[in-house]
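Put briefly, the fold is written as integer tokens. One such record reads:
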Amino acid sequence: MIARELAAQPELVVAVKPTRGLDVGAVEYIHTCLLEQRDQGKGVLLISAELEEIMTLSDRIMVLHGGEITGIVYPDEVTTQELGLMMAGEKSGKMAQGPREDVSV
């Protein structure tokens, strides 16, 4: 299914829980496809409850709780514990404003 969707060469890929219920090989393939899209300059919006997946694939992470933004952070500047608190509704003082020069988005 992902190959069919990416064949259309979209400028924005919205991936909602893209690896839920898949085996390890399929998860790796999906991750590779999403990273390739990012590397080609496409926008990739990943929506997932899998913290490891988010931390591995994201350039920036926005956490929402109850419809409010509780934090926007860079994955290498936040811990899973801090993300968990944001997911529970605790606002973070960390707000990444835009892409860093060393990160492609």
